[in-house]
User: What shape does this take?
Amino acid sequence: MTTTALPYDAIPLVKGLPLVGNLPKFLRDPLDNARSLEGHGNVVRSRTFFETLTLLGPDANQFVLHDREGNFSSRGGWYYWIDAVFPGAIMAMDDPAHRHHRRIMQVAFRRSAMERYVADMGPVIADALAAWPEGRTTVFPHIKALTLDIAARVFMGMALGPEADRMNRAFIDTVEASLALIRKPVPPFAMWRGVRARNLLVGMMRSRLADKRASEGPDLFSQLCHARGEDGERFSDDEVVNHMVFLMMAAHDTTTSTLTTLLYCLARHPDWQDRLRADALALPDAQLQHADLAGCQRTEWAMKEALRMYPPLTSIPRKAARDCSFGGYAIPRGTPVGISPIHTHHMPSIWTDPHRFDPERFSPDRAEHKRHPYAYLPFGGGAHLCIGQHFADMEVKSVLHQLLRRFRVDVAPGYRMPYQLVPIAKPKDGLPVTLTRL
Assistant: This one.
């Protein structure tokens, strides 16, 4: 017997407030927003800037991301949000362009390159942590400055110096432009600031492009300039610049988010902080070596748990590229579709006591993240699985290794971090901590 999907108009619609719909609720608390939608089912229409179809749960994640039928367009999903400030971003490409660019870009993330990157970031981390203040401080700005320094050294092969503040401000403005209410670059509004910031970043990259083309160095910028695909194809100048602007943003913003939430969790759970410190002190070198990465097992569990609780991207947009169906409903071509990692990451049907910080849920004995292949997706999934996830993993481990050997990190009793989860997760108060040198 053939089951006919119900028409799109039969999908429950949550209108929200007049004009702005569910946008304020989504911006304030995307997890709470997803849960309110879930009360209407796992296939729900809602309104933010425009009507979006939200698909909830791990089966929905798999349907959208493990997309062998070509039902969904990543470019169609991301274009509205990022194209003005991050044109040519690899996460906003569809095949065959995505496959072509990813194949060339893989050269910059092969093992030999990663070994150089982890060796290069060690001294940058050591210098930065030596200058961190002891005592009470808001730690988020220090983490953000550190990850930007790492990105500059490893990705661009340089120390930023006085350019660091301008570049950091530029990345903040480009990311904030993604949620701009006014979508045209009209001064002094967010999209105008974002486009102006992008122009500054492009100028920085272009001024160094000829030197990077002239000789091959170990940094990612140089690797992209000289990377070749299987047939000898190379990136154009515009493609190199677009990839560098996006990768620099993604590398330091998402890693900053991960390190901040992980440090917050460890400050609130000093037993885990002590365990990871003991693991760091058990290694012979003050700076983490590439060969040590695989052995940082408990650090990896803690990092994954922080990413589960506070994924840098709380939702992932797509657009239906063809007519399809899910959950008994028809999804017409052209429909904006979104999935919600933060919702899946807190489903009690998958995770034991999901609001509790419990890194051992990722241990081989429990492996809660393997209860469904799309239960855990802080780096997306399918063909668009983040190409830099292993770089992020080794950067977080490298920073934490040195940080825990130097400092004890505490928060005030009863403190709970107020969190902004959109567009990229970060603390609203800068995360006040007490740093004690060891």
The first helix runs from residue 23 to 28. The mean pLDDT is 93. DSSP finds 15 helices and 13 strands in the chain.
